[in-house]
Amino acid sequence: MVATFTDTAAPEIGDMTAVIYIAGLPRSGSTLVGRLLADRYDVQFCGELLHLAAVCPPVADEFCGCGRKLATCEFWRPVSVALQDRNAASVRSAMKDAMERNLASMDSSLVDALRTTLEAIWAANCAPIVDSSKVPRFASYIQRAFPSCEIHVLHLVRDPSAVIASVSTRPLKRPEVIGQQSLKTFPPGSVADRWRRHNAQAAQLRYSASSYHLVRLEDLVSAPTEAMKPIALAAGLRLRQSTDAVDHSLRGNPSRFETLHVDPERCRRVGAPPRLWFHRLRAMLGSAYGYPRIER
User: Fold this and answer.
1) Which of 21, 31, 203, 242 has the fewest Cβ atoms surrounding its Cβ within 10 A?
2) What is the pTM of this model?
3) Radius of gyration of the CA atoms of the chain, in A
4) Contacts of 212 (CB under 8 A, 6+ apart)
5) In angstroms, rounded to a whole number, what is the distance separating the alpha carbons of residues 221 and 226?
6) 148-166, pLDDT tens digit by residue?
7) In the chain, how many domains are there?
């Protein structure tokens, strides 16, 4: 055990202590970071809880990060049972409406469903939960569901060139969703605007979260342990000892089905076409995050 990390006793069942919320843009490495956290620390990586409708009865014919279908996964079965009085279509509709409206109009039934989900996950393992939903507003739902729970935000940022190129030109296959062949792609301009707006909203979480940590993906893949150390200390995470981490992520990047590995060069560059330079500059207007405005 490394002396600089806390080594407290496991909390009592029912005492939700911490949720590590990964905020950022799609294709920014949230799946990789979630898996790295679960590999090094005693946490539960649950993937994108934003899609909790997938475990509402009837359970969707999708795959968990462990490789099993959600209907047969031992991790998600208790959650599905706890949500047995919810309808997946209604939860999905309420979630969509909530994301398009202000927090004042937050659906109480949706908050209750999220509370039920988090309680079921916590009761099974009593370890901090890692949620890679990314959408800044969803962190507020968790805070509403558990006012006494500590929300530790890991704001993950990736060079806009890589994000724009990946989201606009590289449709990833989605083996975990039956009947859906690949993730959607979006025009470079809309991705650039979203990069600027989304990261600005994520930065605002510093004022409401128990702790906030800005991490660049390029720095994290170069030195994962050092990059994650501040949030691990803030959340009181314990280093994982002998038990191997099992990925039970709900949706997310298809890389969650691969062997965990860190490739700094792959994360740093994805071969962004030169024609996208204008959109990169457009994304960075007023928010550089340490990236040079002119690519080198």
Assistant:
1) 242
2) 0.87
3) 18
4) 152, 153, 155, 205, 206
5) 10
6) 889 999 999 998 888 888 8
7) 1
Backbone angles phi, psi at 95, to 5 degrees: -65, -45
Contact assessment for residue 39 and residue 155, using Cβ atoms and an 8 Å cutoff: no
What pLDDT does 11 receive? 39
Domain assignment present for 106? yes
Domain assignment of residue 173, yes or no: yes
Distance CA 246, CA 214 (A): 26
Print the domain residue range for 223.
18-284
pLDDT of 275 reads 65
Q: Is the peptide bond before 58 cis (omega within 30 degrees of 0)?
A: yes
211 domain-assigned? yes
Q: Report if residue 37 sits inside a domain.
A: yes
CATH number, domain with residue 102: 3.40.50.300
Q: Contact, 19 vs 209, CB < 8 A?
A: no
Question: Tokens 């620390």, residue?
Answer: 41
